[in-house]
Write a structure and sequence with these properties.
By secondary structure, the protein is mainly α. Helix content is 65%, strand content 0%. The chain contains 5 helices and no strands. Helix 3 (61-68) packs antiparallel against helix 4 and helix 4 packs antiparallel against helix 5. The longest helix has 18 residues, at 32-49. The protein is globular and about 35 Å long. The termini are far apart.
Length: 110
Amino acid sequence: VIAQAEQSPEGGRERPASVERRAEEAEQAGDFAEAVRLRFHAGLLRLDARGLIEYRPSLGTAAVARRLHSPEFDRLAIRFDEIVYGGRAATAADAEASRNGWAAVAKAAA
């Protein structure tokens, strides 16, 4: 259940900034896999807010990649899938790459 403070006023979805804050907390606590997962979620929510994708929990990385045509997103998606679905252990470098990669995706999408 999404806490009321983290809900967006429109539609009850989590706010990207709240999810990003949790990603930062996870990274600081050394939970790099959770940081990557949360940062990816925040990034998708931001893309949705800009009208670039239509976010839904079942949205796959391949569908987003086809929509964006972004090499930077493709790199993020591969890393995300390896860690979240493939069971690869995440490192501090993965969390940093996620943070920097989403910044690049946002800049390119502007």
